[in-house]
Write a structure and sequence with these properties.
Helix content: 40-55%
CATH topology: Rossmann fold
Number of strands: 5
Low-confidence stretches: none
Structural class: alpha/beta
CATH architecture: 3-Layer(aba) Sandwich
CATH class: Alpha Beta
Largest sheet: 5 strands, parallel
Strand order of the largest sheet: 3-2-1-4-5
Radius of gyration: 16 Å
Number of helices: 6
Length: 174
């Protein structure tokens, strides 16, 4: 059951695996937070992606990296884990809008299909797409992990705490 909210209170939901959170994610979250009174960042379990970080640590990293956004935007930014259907999670947090980031045209096909399915599940919840900023269009968590695994510099792709934790996690695995 969603928290009771005053009329006109706008709640958005930005879901993702965030394994790890990138500067592109932070950019989309910062821009989306300006559109809502509350933005819930949903960290998905998504075991099929074989995450580098366990769910609890991904939630912790996302929370740490987003502390300044709420102050800067005036929005309430909450980070919550979820392991169920996105539409059900949207109902739970009271979101009427799902925010998705697009990096390239290749993202659009998948996201378009997902938005259509979500609309069929609940036509009262809209999906909006935010284009990644030019400097972040090529960044993906998958590429960050591959670069780090091969000893490359990920400094410009992820926030500092996430960089440190990613490098430590990879070092512990090798």
């Amino acid at each position: 059951m969603p928290d009771a909210q005053p009329n006109g209170f706008r709640v958005g939901l930005y879901p993702g695996t965030f394994d790890p959170i990138t500067n592109g994610h932070v950019d989309i979250i910062g821009r989306a937070a300006r559109m809502f009174d509350r933005l819930v960042v949903g960290v998905a379990v998504n075991a099929g992606k074989a995450p580098l970080f366990p769910l609890a640590e991904r939630v912790e990293l996302v929370q740490a990296e987003l502390q300044s956004i709420a102050t800067r935007t005036g929005a309430e930014v909450l980070v919550r884990p979820f392991d169920r259907l996105l539409i059900d999670f949207a109902h739970e947090v009271g979101a009427r809008v799902i925010v998705r980031g697009l990096r390239a045209v290749s993202d659009f096909d998948y996201e378009f299909q997902m938005a259509g399915m979500n609309y069929r599940l609940d036509s009262n919840i809209e999906t909006v797409f935010l284009m990644a900023s030019e400097r972040h269009q090529f960044i993906s968590s998958r590429f960050v992990k591959e670069i780090a695994l091969l000893g490359g510099d990920i400094t410009s792709f992820v926030p500092p705490l996430t960089r440190d934790r990613t490098l430590a996690r990879i070092a512990a695995q090798t």
